[in-house]
Amino acid sequence: MNTSLTAEQRADLLIPQMTLEQKVQQISNDTRPAEKDENRPPGCEFTQIARHIQGIPELAIPTVRMINGGTGVRGGSCLPEPVATAVPSTPASAATFNPELNRQLGEVLGAEARSVGHQVMLAPGMNLHRHPFGGRNYEYQSEDPYLSGVMATEQIKGIQAHGIHANAKHFAANEQESQRRQMATVVPPRALHELYLLPFEMSVRDAQPASIMCAFPEINGVSACSNEDLLKTTLRERWGFQGYVMSDRRAVHDVAPSIKAGVDWELSHITPLHYSLEPQRGQRGNPGSEGIRAALDAGTITVGDIDQMLRRRYVQMFKFGHFDTDFDALYGSPVDFVAHAAVARELAEQGIVLLKNEQGFLPLEPKEIRSIALIGAEWFAGQAKLPPRSIRADNVGVVAPFTVSPQEGLEHVLITLGSPATVTYDSAGGTGKKEDRERAIELARKSDVVIVMVGDNPHELCDRETLSLPVIPPADPNFCAYDELEEGEYVLQRPERGEGTQQEMLMAELSADPEVAKKTVVVLKTEGMVLMPWLDKVPALVEAWYPGQSDGLAVANILFGLRNPSGKLPMTFGNSEREAAHETTAQFPGLWVGPPHWLATPSNSNEPGGDPSPTLEGQKRFSAQYSEGLQVGYRWYEANNVKPVFPFGFGLSYTTFAYADLSVQTVAGPQGQNVLNVSYRITNTGTRQGAEASQVYLTLPPEAGQPSKRLVGFQKVDLMPGESRQVTVTVDESAANHPLSYWVPEKDVPEPGWGRGEWRTAPGSYTVHVGTSSAETPLQQAVSVAAGVPRR
């Protein structure tokens, strides 16, 4: 406890004082000690899902508690759930194209995790939007690895600024929820390094997260949490990661291979399955193991391995002051919810994307409006839409200090603007019958303006079953489209039953009446793209994502022009359910293959009051084939010359911007690396103040084998009407995103050994593209780049 010593010295003094039993107790979680009042902070009620490791007071080792997540603080080691700021969904944060604002988001999360006595924030998520069905895409940043990496890096910096360990997840190739606990992914090595690993590499090199969470999938033949290519060759040896690796819940499937790969902490369900001293029975379909003692006796691991596991975590705890801070005493600390609400609202407003605006339909002019019809399901139009925080489709979010509903937001803005216009809300639901929709359509006919709010309902454990608009609330909230299917069956769309707002029918009937359609603005509250067969009939479309607690005010401010929309799409809005990286069922949800080794035998259950799990021997599972390689998102559309509905990086404004005067200077960096200084001028050519997120893309020489240009930089500037500003973006070969380089694997096949290789910069002509989206880059310049030094 001598604070004058280094973190490493303190850890090295502590570990030799521990018994083997204490060491093993510290490398997994066990909720049972938390049942005792004396093991919890005052006011903290017991929850069986607690993600924590009980401390050892006689050695001054504190209890470590973890809490979710990137869209607000919930799901930790205590009940009741804390009051927490309901920030927007993660794609909304990425859509801001504002790194500094994302750092402020991290600071909100870090401060609120600390205020409830938790040392670890299970965020950010940085898996890619490989396809639009992803059940947790609302927790992930983007389809582009560079944008994802920039935003996640800033969020980590903000979280850790408050002495809280950020936990970057889910590492890696975890782009779907379908059968996530047993599924496999087959990913070409180049795609792994250039796309799916790149955001994690950027965060490790630029933000030094204290921890990484290894994911569920089997990657190229080996489970993520025992995958030495992933955790040893790549994470620790190449990237130099110094923190600790914890598993996703129940993602460890063996003892020695996971320990040798570098998993320092097994996150289990109630009790550990593998990182336990003695043999353990299985739980929830996961077979148990013979335990640590058997592995030690067999010589497959050593006590030195366990010491190293502890050391990596304890060093981070000492660095962050966890041994020197009474986190129990922090439980229930005051929170500046006013300041945090301002950040959440700014994220929501800057993240809203204006997708369509024919003949200047928006912003709405309050002087010309007497009545507004607000129509849509309760989830989207009747209350603030928070990002879901439940494994079921029941719209559960964090416990927010306040929320602003759409009607409240619209009425507030109308009062602010001195308008007497009225807002009338109709859910177009209740019985699910046609008369519900007819009532709403009649309201629309007699109103001056129609605002329709529609959305989707993804959730953890289940991927979206359709890209059409679902019935809300769903008839069966427990339904998972790709579970419980026979081989060869794929359900993408199923008849909805029961009550609720029939959103597809509602949109079809509203848009079928030209007099209604021409005065309608549609507000999407989705995690990403949806199919919109009615799009050409309405003049205005806005993507608001899940805006969080200030939903109503943020959206109303955009619709009435109190804020100029400046968000840009962090993913492509495609044309159909089956194109790009999800064109075939082999790509998503995957081929049917045999079970992994750990499901090849029956499993027993040791859950309290639970029946033994049925045998899982021979159970088949999905193996997602990432056969598209590098052709993900906008790269596929460009490579295949397909025009999407809305391209990556796209977003309109109430003003206009002009790009000019591109200049690219090539210089040598301090280590001799190639550096491109990209300079250009942006002018606000319209009549309103507005912000423009300009984007810099790069086309590599043919030797690099890239399908398209790639995003390598962006910068958002706020300009008054007529104002111009010179923007400079530096593209550095040695940066963590390897902007000028491509991955050359030693073994160019998706099997063990895929982790070895190097980054290489090809000599030749590179083309710099600058513009307002991936599909609109009016400024281009070719530059010559010398061969770079290969980098690991």
Helix content: 10-25%
Give the distance, in angstroms, between the N- and C-terminal Cα atoms.
Answer: 38 Å
How large is the radius of gyration? 26 Å
Strand order in the sheet with the most strands: 1-2-3-4-6-9
Number of strands: 28
Strand content: 15-25%
Average pLDDT value? 93
Report the major sheet: 6 strands, mixed
Note down, in words, how this protein is organized.
This protein is of the alpha/beta class and 792 residues long. 24% of the residues lie in helices and 19% in strands. It contains 20 helices and 28 strands. A six-stranded mixed beta sheet has the order 1-2-3-4-6-9. Strands 10-17-16-13-11-12 form a six-stranded mixed beta sheet, sandwiched between helices. It has a five-stranded mixed beta sheet with strand order 8-7-5-19-18, with no helix packed on it. Helix 4 packs antiparallel against helix 13 (337-351). The longest helix is centred in the N-terminal third of the chain and has 17 residues, at 99-115. 56% of the residues are buried.
What keyword list fits this structure?
792 residues, 20 helices, six-stranded mixed beta sheet, alpha/beta, globular, 28 strands
Per-chain topology:
Blueprint (H helix, E strand, L loop, with lengths): L6 H8 L5 H6 L26 E2 L10 E4 L22 H6 L3 H17 L4 E2 L23 H16 L4 E7 L12 E3 L2 H8 L1 H10 L3 E4 L3 E2 L2 E2 L4 H11 L5 E4 L8 H6 L30 H7 L4 H17 L7 H4 L6 H15 L1 E5 L13 E5 L2 H5 L23 H11 L5 E5 L7 H12 L3 E7 L15 E2 L28 E2 H10 L1 H4 L2 E6 L14 E4 L7 H9 L31 E3 L27 E5 L8 H6 L17 E12 L5 E11 L5 E10 L10 E10 L4 E9 L9 E4 L11 E4 L3 E8 L7 E7 L7
Parallel strand pairs: 2-3, 3-4, 4-6, 5-7, 5-19, 6-9, 11-12, 11-13, 13-16, 16-17
Antiparallel strand pairs: 1-2, 7-8, 10-17, 14-15, 18-19, 20-21, 21-24, 22-23, 22-27, 25-26, 27-28
Helix pairs in contact: 1-11, 4-5, 4-13, 5-7, 13-19, 15-19
